[in-house]
Design goal:
Elements: H1 3-11, H2 16-20, E1 40-41, H3 54-66, H4 83-93, E2 100-103, H5 106-117, E3 123-128, H6 132-138, E4 144-151, E5 154-155, H7 157-165, E6 172-175, H8 189-202, E7 205-209, H9 226-230, E8 234-239, E9 251-254, H10 257-268, H11 276-286, H12 291-317, E10 321-323, E11 331-336, H13 342-351, E12 354-355, E13 357-358, E14 373-377, H14 383-401
Parallel strand pairs: 1-12, 3-4, 3-6, 6-7, 7-8
Antiparallel strand pairs: 2-9, 4-5, 8-9, 10-11, 11-14, 13-14
Helix pairs in contact: 3-11, 5-6, 12-14, 13-14
The structure holds pyridoxal-5'-phosphate.
C-alpha cells in the first residue's frame, strides 16, 4: 500500500483488515476475464441449469408456501439451522445432527472455519494447485501458507509426512478431497487414513472442502473415508451450490462435537442464521424420492460434457496436451506443451472468443507455477460450445506457435 492509499483509508475510518486486503488477482477476477458477446466461457464454476432439479424446486416451494407452516419460517430461526434440515444433511453425511451447522454456502463455511481455526501468523498447509478463493479467505486471518502437491489420488500424504518430520508444524491443512478443484483427483481411503493419522499425531485440523462429492460420473464410486467423518481433527465444509445451484446460497459445516457450540457463538456474532425459508424448501427437496435420480442424471450429463471436452482437446492438440479424463466434478486440468508465452495465449484465446482459468492462478505459493496448465470448465456450456471453445483455443495456440 502506498502512503497515499494509507492516508485515504485512515481518512475513511477503515480498519487495518479492510485496508490490508490485497487487490483481486487472477482467478475470479472479472477484470482479467473478457467475455465478449458470443464468447465461450470455460472458466466458470456454475452448474448447467438444465441439470438442476428445477421441477423439485417448484413442487417443494408450492407445497411450502401453500402450507400452514409457511408464516413461521418468516420468524428468526435457530443459528445452527432448522432441525429437519440438519437431520437430513447428517443422514447424508453419516454423522450426528448435532455436528451439522447450516451455512450460506461453501465460501461462508470456509470463512467461518478460517475464523474458528486460525490465528494471525499460524501456518496452514494447502493443496498445490489450490482452490484460489480459499487463499483469499485466509486474508481474513493472515495465516502463512505452505503448499503440498495434489495428484490423481489426492494430497501427497508422503510429501506432507516428510515435511512434518523435518519440523513443519501447521495449525491446519486445507484440501478438496473429491474431484479436486482444479486438478480433478480424489483422496483414496488409504491416504485419508494416513492423513488423519498425521493430523492426530501432529495436532493440526484438517479442513476438508467437499463441494463436488455428489457430482460423480456413472461408474465412479467415491471412497467412504470414515475417519474423515469421525476424527475430532476434521472440519468439513459442504455446499448445495453444485447440486442445487450457487444462487441458493446454502451449505453446511460438519464440526467435531466439542466445537459445535463454539461455532454457534461465532455465527451469532456474524449474521446469526441462514434463511429459514430456503432451508424449508431444501428440506423438502432432500426428502423427495426424485432427488437421488436427479443427481444421477446430472452426473450422466456432466460425464457426457467432460468426455466431449477431453476428446476435443486430444483431437485438437494431440501429443501436445496432457489431460486426465475427469471422473466427476466440473473441471478438466490440462497442460499444454510448448515453449510459448502462456499469458499471451490467454489474451489470444480471449480475442478468439474463449476464456478459461490460467494454471498459474492455482499455484499455492508461486513455488510451482503450473506453467502451461489451464482449468477448463465443462459444467455449464453445451457440448457443441465445448467443442467450439477448444477449437478457438487451439486456433490461438497454433497462431502463437507459428510466430
Ligand atoms: C473447492 C470449492 N470450495 C468452495 C466453493 C464455494 O462454494 P459456494 O458457491 O457454495 O460458496 C467452490 C465453488 O466453486 C469450490 O470449487
Amino acid at each position: 500500500m502506498t502512503t497515499k492509499d494509507s492516508d485515504m483509508f485512515t481518512a475513511l475510518g477503515a480498519s487495518s483488515l479492510l485496508a490490508s486486503l490485497p487487490p483481486r488477482q487472477g482467478f475470479g477476477d472479472a477484470t482479467l476475464i473478457r467475455l465478449a458477446p458470443g464468447a465461450i466461457d470455460l472458466g466458470g464454476g456454475n452448474p448447467a441449469t438444465g441439470l438442476l432439479p428445477t421441477e423439485l424446486y417448484r413442487d417443494a416451494s408450492a407445497a411450502f408456501f401453500s402450507g400452514d407452516d409457511f408464516p413461521r419460517a418468516l420468524r428468526y430461526s435457530p443459528a445452527p439451522g432448522l432441525p429437519a434440515l440438519r437431520a437430513a444433511i447428517a443422514e447424508r453425511e453419516g454423522v450426528e445432527a448435532e455436528r451439522v451447522l447450516v451455512t450460506n454456502g461453501g465460501a461462508h463455511g470456509l470463512a467461518l472455519v478460517a475464523l474458528g481455526t486460525l490465528d494471525r501468523g499460524d501456518v496452514i498447509v494447502v493443496d498445490d494447485p489450490v482452490y484460489p478463493l480459499f487463499l483469499r479467505v485466509l486474508d481474513l486471518v493472515g495465516a502463512s501458507v505452505v503448499g503440498v502437491p495434489v495428484g490423481a489420488d489426492g494430497l501427497d500424504v508422503d510429501a506432507l509426512a516428510a515435511r512434518l518430520r523435518a519440523g513443519l508444524r501447521p495449525k491446519a491443512l486445507f484440501t478438496v478431497p473429491t474431484f479436486h478443484n482444479p486438478s480433478g483427483g480424489t483422496l483414496s481411503a488409504q491416504k485419508a487414513d494416513a492423513l488423519v493419522d498425521l493430523a492426530e499425531k501432529y495436532g493440526f485440523t484438517i479442513i476438508a472442502d467437499d463441494p463436488y462429492r455428489e457430482i460423480a460420473f456413472p461408474g465412479t464410486v467415491v471412497p467412504r473415508r470414515a475417519r474423515l467423518r469421525e476424527s475430532p481433527q476434521v472440519v468439513s465444509v459442504g455446499t448445495f451450490s453444485k447440486t442445487l445451484g450457487p444462487g441458493l446460497r446454502l451449505g453446511w459445516l460438519v464440526v467435531p462435537p466439542a466445537l459445535a457450540e463454539h461455532y454457534v457463538r461465532l455465527r451469532n456474532r456474524l449474521d446469526g442464521q441462514s434463511s429459514a425459508v430456503l432451508q424449508e424448501i431444501v428440506t423438502r427437496i432432500l426428502s423427495d424420492a426424485r432427488f437421488g435420480p436427479a443427481l444421477r442424471t446430472a452426473g450422466e450429463g456432466y460425464a457426457e460434457k467432460a468426455g466431449a471436452l477431453v476428446e476435443a482437446l486430444r483431437t485438437e492438440f494431440g501429443d501436445d496436451v496432457d489431460v486426465d479424463a475427469p471422473q466427476g466434478g466440473f473441471f478438466a486440468w490440462a497442460r499444454l506443451r510448448g515453449d510459448l508465452d502462456f499469458a499471451q495465449l490467454f489474451e489470444a484465446a480471449q480475442d478468439a472468443g474463449v476464456t478459461y482459468q490460467r494454471g498459474e492462478w492455482f499455484s499455492a505459493t508461486g513455488e510451482r507455477p503450473f506453467r502451461g496448465h489451464a482449468r477448463l470448465s465443462f459444467s455449464e456450456p453445451e457440448v457443441h460450445e465445448l467443442r467450439e471453445g477448444v477449437s478457438r483455443l487451439a486456433q490461438a495456440w497454433r497462431a502463437l506457435r507459428a510466430r
